[in-house]
Amino acid sequence: MKKAKELSTLCGVKVSAVIKSCDNAEPEFWPSKEGAEAVHSEFMKVVETQGFSKMHNHESYLLERIQKDGEKARRLHAENREIELREVMFDLLKGKTLM
Questions:
Q1: Residue 64, C-beta contacts closer than 8 angstroms, at least 6 positions apart
Q2: Along the chain (99 residues), what's the average pLDDT of each consecutive run of 10 residues?
Q3: Range of the domain at 64
Q4: Taking burial as the number of CB atoms within 10 A of a residue's CB, which of 23, 28, 57, 67 is the most buried?
Q5: What are the E-state strand segments in the chain?
Q6: How far is CA 38 from the centre of its chain?
Q7: Do 41 and 63 belong together in one domain?
């Protein structure tokens, strides 16, 4: 609950939490049940108007990161290859032989 309150205070966003433990039949709400319901209904209104286009789950986030990192690796590989070829070319121009 402390982290939810800090997030709300520091970031100026509306936060709610619903905690359900295995041994307790009733869930806990923060800041209150009514507050959690209000934040949830406001969130659902945003989802209805804007859709899920900007929302991520763990899987979509990881797939996006894998794709971006793969593109970055390919780009860096091409840059390294170009640098290596340039070094070989300059070595040949200086009269060095290839091993």
A1: 56
A2: 84 87 83 89 84 75 94 98 96 86
A3: 56-99
A4: 28
A5: 17-19, 28-30
A6: 26
A7: no
